[in-house]
């Protein structure tokens, strides 16, 4: 059986890894929000999505979060008329990425807050473990 404080560290650590991956995907989406195709009529950058799953850690019996996969958003690309653009098709239309910066900013804030919460759990658990060790030294 795993110590409850040790378990909280393990769970929070899994959360940190998951939110870190989420922040990476959001940053890729934001960085490519204006990336069009390289050739006329080519598809632009497609927004990425990330999915999580709970997984049983058989060694400890804990339910830990992990990244289930990174997918591609199926939302259609925006079409913009810009005949002078290098990625314009024969009609002068350019496909723009399906990235909405407001959605990405909201997702980034949510991931950031979850990451901070996991960090706080780790700090509290570490402090409690240190207090327990100090208490046991006095015995």
Describe this structure in words.
- The structure is a single chain.
- Strands 1-2 form a two-stranded antiparallel sheet.
- The protein is elongated.
- The longest helix is centred in the last third of the chain and has 37 residues, at about 100-135.
- The chain has two helices and four strands, in the order αββββα.
- Helix 1 (about 5-30) runs antiparallel to helix 2 (about 100-135).
- It has helices at about 5-30, 100-135, and strands spanning about 50-55, 60-70, 80, 95.
- It has one domain (about 5-135).
- Strand 1 and strand 2 form a beta hairpin.
- By secondary structure, the protein is an alpha+beta fold.
- About 45% of the residues lie in helices and about 20% in strands.
- It starts with a helix and ends with a helix.
Helix/strand layout:
Elements: H1 4-31, E1 48-57, E2 62-72, E3 78-81, E4 93-96, H2 101-137
Antiparallel strand pairs: 1-2, 3-4
Helix pairs in contact: 1-2
Organism: Methylocystis parvus
Main location: other
Protein name: Flagellar basal-body rod protein FlgC
Keywords:
47% helix; two-stranded antiparallel ribbon; 139 residues; elongated; 21% strand; single chain
Q: Which stretches are poorly predicted, pLDDT < 50 over at least 5 residues?
A: none
Distance between the termini: 24 Å
Helix proportion:
40-55%
Tell me the domain tally. Answer: 1
Shape by Cα distribution: elongated
How many helices? The count is 2
Q: Main beta sheet: strand number and arrangement?
A: 2 strands, antiparallel
Protein name: Flagellar basal-body rod protein FlgC
Domain Flagellar basal-body/hook protein C-terminal: 94-133
Subcellular location: Bacterial flagellum basal body
Keywords: Bacterial flagellum, Cell projection, Cilium, Flagellum
């Amino acid at each position: 059986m795993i110590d409850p404080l040790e378990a909280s560290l393990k769970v929070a650590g899994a959360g940190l890894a998951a939110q870190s991956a989420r922040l990476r995907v959001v940053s890729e989406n934001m960085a490519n929000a204006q990336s069009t195709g390289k050739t006329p009529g080519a598809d632009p950058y497609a927004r990425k999505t990330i999915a999580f799953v709970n997984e049983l850690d058989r060694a400890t019996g804990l339910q830990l979060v992990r990244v289930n996969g990174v997918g591609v958003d199926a939302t259609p690309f925006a079409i913009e008329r810009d005949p002078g653009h290098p990625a314009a098709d024969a009609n002068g239309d350019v496909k723009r990425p399906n990235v909405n910066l407001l959605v990405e900013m909201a997702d980034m804030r949510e991931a950031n807050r979850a990451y901070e919460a996991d960090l706080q759990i780790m700090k509290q658990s570490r402090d409690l473990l240190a207090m327990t060790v100090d208490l046991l030294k006095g015995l």
